[in-house]
Specification:
Number of strands: 12
Oligomer: single chain
Number of helices: 9
Shape: globular
Strand content: 25-35%
Radius of gyration: 18 Å
Structural class: alpha/beta
Order of helices and strands: EEEHEEHEHHHHEHEEEHHEE
Helix content: 25-40%
Bound molecules: adenosine-5'-triphosphate, magnesium ion
Largest sheet: 6 strands, mixed
Strand order of the largest sheet: 6-7-8-3-9-10
Length: 261
C-alpha cells in the first residue's frame, strides 16, 4: 500500500503556542479518514499542511509520495482537492457557480488567463449535475445559501480528479435535511473505489458518513487516538479529546455521541 499522506513529528508553532505538537500520522491509499477534536485542537492546521497551504515549523511531510520542500507545490496542488471555509472567503462573490467549479481544474479562485477545454467544461457540468447544482450554474457564488455553497465547494474540489480530497467541516452550518443529504452524498463517494483518498474534518460524530474507515482524534495539537474508526471512537478516547464524559454509539455505519450524566 502507498502512503497518501505522512506526517513525521509535525510541529506548528506560533509564538509560544503549539498548534500541532509532534504529530505522526499516516494515511494510506484507499482510506477515508475523519479528523475530530474540539475547537482549537489543530484540525484545520493539519488539513492546511496536507493541502500544502501551510508549512510546519518542524517535522517532515510527504504528500502523495512527494516530500514537501523538495517538490513543485503548484503541480502537487493539482492532485489535491481542498474545501474549507478559508477558501470560500477567497472567492470573488461575482464568480458564477459554473466558474467556481471550473477553476478547480487549476486550483485557482477567479478566472484569469488559464485555459479550459471542452473536457473541463463537460466535467464541471457533470459534477454540477451530480451535486444538484445544475439549476444554479449562472448564479453568482455570493448569492448561494450555505448548503449550496458547500456543495459547490465539494464539486470544485473534485474538478481536477484529485488523488487526495481534503474537506474541512463540509457540513457546518447546514440544516438537518442539508446535512443528511450531504453526509449521504459523501457516503456514496466513500463507497466508490475510484474515489480519492479522503480526509474529512468535523466536530460532530453525526456528520461521519458511512464507509469512513479511520479516525484521528486531536486535542491541543496532539493525537489522542488514531487508527481504524471503531478503535478510535471509544467512550474513553472521545471523552478525553473533548474533555467531557460522553457515550459513543454506532448504528448501521453512522455515529453519535451524548453526554454521560
Ligand atoms: N497565528 C496564530 N497565532 C497564535 N495562535 C494561532 C494562530 N493561528 C491559529 N492559532 C490557534 O491555533 C489553534 C488551532 O487552530 P485550528 O484552526 O487548527 O483549530 P481547529 O481544530 O480547526 O478549530 P475549529 O474546530 O474551531 O475550527 C487555535 O487555538 C488557534 O487560535
Ligand atoms: Mg477548523
Amino acid at each position: 500500500m502507498t502512503c497518501a499522506l505522512r506526517f513525521d513529528a509535525v510541529t506548528v508553532r506560533r509564538g509560544d503556542t503549539r498548534l500541532l505538537d509532534h504529530l505522526d500520522w499516516q494515511v494510506q491509499d484507499g482510506e477515508r479518514w475523519v479528523v475530530m477534536g474540539p475547537n482549537g485542537a489543530g484540525k484545520t492546521t493539519a488539513l492546511q499542511i496536507a493541502a500544502t497551504r501551510l508549512h510546519p515549523t518542524r517535522g517532515a511531510v510527504t504528500i502523495l509520495g512527494e516530500e514537501i520542500g523538495a517538490v513543485d507545490i503548484a503541480e502537487l496542488r493539482q492532485a489535491i482537492g481542498w474545501s474549507s471555509g478559508s477558501l470560500v472567503d477567497a472567492f470573488p462573490p461575482q464568480e458564477s457557480v459554473f466558474d467556481a467549479i471550473l477553476t478547480g481544474a487549476w486550483s485557482v479562485t477567479g478566472r484569469w488567463r488559464e485555459t479550459y477545454d471542452d473536457a473541463d467544461r463537460h466535467r464541471a457540468a457533470t459534477l454540477m449535475e451530480g451535486w444538484g447544482l445544475t439549476s444554479l450554474a449562472d448564479r453568482t457564488f455570493g448569492t448561494l445559501s450555505e448548503g449550496e455553497r458547500k456543495r459547490t465547494m465539494i464539486a470544485r474540489s473534485l474538478m481536477a480528479d484529485p488523488e487526495l480530497l481534503l474537506l474541512d467541516e463540509p457540513a457546518a452550518g447546514l440544516d438537518l435535511g442539508g446535512r443528511e443529504s450531504l453526509v449521504g452524498a459523501l457516503g456514496a463517494l466513500a463507497a466508490d473505489p475510484s474515489a480519492p483518498v479522503t480526509v474529512l474534518v468535523t466536530h460532530h460524530l453525526e456528520e461521519i458518513p458511512t464507509g469512513f474507515t479511520h479516525g484521528l482524534l486531536l486535542s491541543q495539537g496532539r493525537a489522542v487516538a488514531q487508527g481504524p474508526l471503531a478503535e478510535v471512537l471509544t467512550d474513553a478516547a472521545v471523552s478525553e479529546a473533548f474533555g467531557l464524559s460522553v457515550h459513543v454509539r454506532s448504528d448501521e455505519g453512522r455515529w453519535s455521541a451524548r453526554r454521560r450524566d
